[in-house]
Specification:
The protein is mostly helical. It is built from one helix and no strands.
Length: about 50
């Protein structure tokens, strides 16, 4: 068995793959140097839409 090397994906094409093929929604997160220690790399950059 031979494992094919993964083709490099752009961020946009990777997000489209996860949305279209996996049914996932990709949310941008703050980087490891942003936010408090417990929220680094976890805090979403975008706020969730609220219903009125």
């Amino acid at each position: 068995m031979q494992i094919e090397p993964a083709a490099p994906l752009s961020i946009l094409s990777a997000a489209a793959h996860y949305r279209d093929d996996c049914g996932w929604i990709v949310h941008p997160l703050h980087g490891p140097n942003e936010g408090t220690e417990k929220e680094r790399g976890k805090k979403p950059k975008l706020r969730a839409a609220t219903r009125s």
